[in-house]
Amino acid sequence: MDNKDDRYETTDVVICGCGPTGAMLSGYLSRMSVKHVVLEKEGGITTDPRGIALDEDGIRLLQGIGIYKSVYSEIGTCMQLFKFIGGTQKDLHRDAFLEMDYATTEGGTGHVGFICHKQPILEQHLRATMASDFCQLRSQCTVMEISQDLQWTYCRYRDQDGQVHALRSRFFVGADGKTGFTRKNYLEPLGIRMEPAHNAFYDETWVALNWQIDLPTQKSHPDFALWSLGYSPQDVYDLFFPANFRFICNPLRPAVCGRFGLPSDRLWRFEFVVRPGEDPDEMAASEKTMEIISPYITHKGKGFGLPQDVQYPEDCISVLRSRPFRFAARDCNRWSHGRVILCGDAAHVFPPFGGQGIASGFRDAASLAWRLSFLTRRPPHEQANPPHRHESVLEGWYRERKQQLSASLASTIENGRFVTEANPLRIFLRTCYLFVMNLVPRWRRELRLGRRKEGLIRYRYEEAQDGDQHHHGPLAMPFMPELNGGLCLPQVYCKPVVAVGADRARGGEREREGARVFFTDDVIFDVRKTGLFQLLVCLENISELDDARETLSSVNDVVVDAGGTEDEICFDEATYLIQDDRDVSKLQCDKDLNSAATDGSMRDLLAPVLPPPVYQLASAEEFAGSPLCEGRPTPQGYDPHYLGKALGRGLQYVIVRPDRFIFAACRNSDELRTAVAAVVGYLRG
Ligand SMILES: Cc1cc2nc3c(=O)[nH]c(=O)nc-3n(C[C@H](O)[C@H](O)[C@H](O)COP(=O)(O)OP(=O)(O)OC[C@H]3O[C@@H](n4cnc5c(N)ncnc54)[C@H](O)[C@@H]3O)c2cc1C
């Protein structure tokens, strides 16, 4: 091993592949100060927009690496409704038999349900987050050999000039896509296999088309029939390429279509199934695709009182992509072997109906990054005892991820079944069922919530697998089910509570700041904080603040007693969130806080320093009036108490993992002591 030292350049993590998953992992590793090298075989970002839909978890994870501002201004736009339209009539304006409303903010993340985006632009923004002292992106570098021993992984890659380089790292992550090198060439011979994830889906071939649409004008198309009826070019576009995403549940040829990217891009996706016996390449040729799509972009003349049918001018349509692709629902039996790990499409692939491909890779990345962060914090000689600790950590990681994957797959299957159902009896029964569901407001609301009706995921605790002689950690999965751990922490909006009197004495800066609204993730995981795990203190009202603060100081010693450090969990960084709807700063600050400040009890806590440690819930209206809402729909259906309700009464002290999952939610100092010791125990192995 030692003689390898000279021949290998050394880093902590190597990521093979810089698609959305690799870039997201790199972004989080940079935030966590983990040194890594990203090897990408292509020279630039692929220009082919494959993925177009990203769910609210995905948006939240983009927010987590600091690019929320670009989400609606540069990356995409809210997807609004998913409309499921039935029958064999080729009319995009038919009434939907089912609508899911993804424009609302009911999912518990504070975001809309889905955005539609342009994958290359999304990837550009992701790459911008990688730039740091901790990351080196090496483009045109193709991994061609992987090996490992107990402490290191080794890889060789070829650069653009054909030179071969050797790289050694503590962990090697294959984020190299569904046909990637890591699985096929290194892990499959070691027994890792892509297996069907669900028997509801057989592999199917579809054609995916991307069109870029120009607007016809009276000058460019003087004979176009709708000008005489007063239509503007934009009206024409809206008529033929309507907003909202459509699932065309036509038993003869299922399809999906809708806009993507920014509205100004005028991009349109149409995907349709290739029937048995049809040749996929032939079906993707322009003659065939026009034959299939043109009925959808042709309107009967009689609807406009015109003698002839109206079709969108073909010369205003540019084809950016038209290609068959095969989809399947598959995932690997194991996602790691020793120190070599798979994530994103390299570990699992989805049918396209739920927009879960990119978001799943993002979830893999965010939940892996913090584990790699603590696994690489200590030098190899310390980590060698116990030598297989990383294996149980990684197994715990992918077993959690597999639970989430099943949930994502369930919604994908539900959408897929609507689209591909061809049996007339089942279609009839479905129509009856949906008719009844729509009559009852609560059921109707559930239908409109779509995949969000299940709420945020809660992991089920699984013991380490029997016979796993490598399992040494105190927890197989890093959360405490007996202390309410395992739930994905909801995100709400909040605003700082300011000690008005103290602040005014210093120029009123914090009072002005008090008008600002934040996402709770951004204050809990403020980039300036050092602790890997964070502490959130949820209080019913401000009068509980002193007691809570005392509880924290009484437990503070546990971190050190358990052998931990402030890099792992730091009580001084705790975020206090007051669940009171009333404006605490206006109603009570002058009175209560300033009088408390005179006896010194809350002075430090509420002193006008950055970042303010005490927050209270902000309303939908306050969010709507804040810069965070610019460009996105104002929150509809937002419940500021979502977080409090999800936690349940009395669970005041919440230890949150960096991937936004609750490690433990505690009622009192005893529970908190137990939980903090468990955090340190887990992180220290
Ligand atoms: C038609 C279509 C529609 C889709 N629609 C959606 C959608 O609406 N929503 C959604 O979420 N997803 C969608 N997807 C899926 C989505 O595009 C993928 O899930 C996503 O790109 C996976 O990201 P990844 O980073 O895991 O892998 P990839 O994007 O495949 O990236 C892998 C990277 O690894 C690099 N690489 C490979 N081998 C090597 C090597 N040996 N050395 C160095 N680098 C290497 C590749 O060049 C590539 O850049 C769609 C896919 C298709 C084809």
Automatic annotation (TrEMBL):
Q: Which Gene3D superfamilies match?
A: FAD/NAD(P)-binding domain (3.50.50.60)
Fetch the SUPFAM superfamilies from UniProt. Answer: FAD/NAD(P)-binding domain
Which keywords accompany this UniProt record? FAD, Flavoprotein, Oxidoreductase
- Residue ranges constituting the FAD-binding domain according to the UniProt record: 11-374
The answer on whether this UniProt entry bears the keyword Transport reads no
Protein name, per record: FAD-binding domain-containing protein
Q: Which organism is it from?
A: Aspergillus pseudoustus
